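Molecular record:
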Amino acid sequence: MPAAPQPSRPRVTPLYPPNVFEKMTRLAARHGAVNLGQGFPDTDGPRWIRALAAEAILDGHANQYAPGRGDPALRRAVAGHQRRHHGLEIDPDREVLVTTGATEGIAAALLALVQPGDEVVAFEPFYDSYAAITARTGARFVTVPLPAPDFLPDPAALEAAITPRTRLLLLNTPHNPTGAVVPAGILARIVEVCARHDVLILSDEVYEHLVFDGAHRPAASVPGGWDRTLTVSSAGKSFSLTGWKIGWVTGPADLVDAVYSVKQFLTYSSGPAYQPAVARALEDGDGFLAGQREAYRAARDELVAGLRRAGLDPVVPAAGYFTVTDLSPLGVTDASAAAAVLAERAGVVGIPMSALCSPPAAPGEAPPLASWMRWAFCKSPAVLAEAVDRLQRLPRALGG
């Protein structure tokens, strides 16, 4: 008797292409290449902070759900941090929300505040999550290019991109991937443009403690900024604890409430052992932050020097984990295609900048910053020294 036909299931098509950061990490592993692609440190944050989380787990006080809005101690510490570093007076009970990393804070904010038919404006290049989550809201994602080599936003170009449907500006300073820090004057003009057009600001400031040149100023601290700005940050980048995924959103209570209304149906809460440890880190970790900033400044300078010796002209970032460089002096027109060659022949991996830009408008058109590559310097001295040594193979690898 023939077997009964089996019911077929719907065909599943991924909503997005494979994550380019994981792709580059796999490429590095396959060829034994130094991974300067994905932006995570290869050394952990302070042992005393990690010990606090371990003790909380073993003592049995932090193994169940944390409060949905976040551990009260962490919310108080975030408010104290904003007051001490930025002069912002924030109510920890009504104007702070703890999230599962900054990425969840961004996602929950977009899902809460943006509707189909709205427009979200961001400067390009951008953290790739911005476009993906905006797409899930049904809004249109509009980009304003940041011109190389300074990669600073032009308030006039921003204003030209705003329409009556523009709901929100996604601002990122210090900037990933370029390391640019928006100067106070430009920031004030951006806030003024948003206020004039009644546009909300979602300000991603996760690299706030990794500024080497100049100073970070939150958008919320600019006159007229607080009432329309949600600020997102996290412990991951500041304290080299990216896997803990402890972030926060601060801003006016009604906007924070809106974000929480979505966040409660995403993760509800997370990291109950990590949250009190991060609270202590924010209160007592300024010494570590200063030391890490200087260590990364030295790492930045070493990588920039190595890229220059390889015949390139890298951007000297004012902040963050990364430097970027145009590979066209070495004959590269497509950094995405060159990435596999560099992994195999030079033994080093970066992230093509086109992965952090909108796709081309027409078939056959080159993507923005097609010949540019991002390189991470948040690595140990030994790893970075090996990377710099291998970077000297770039001209031969690309020419062969």
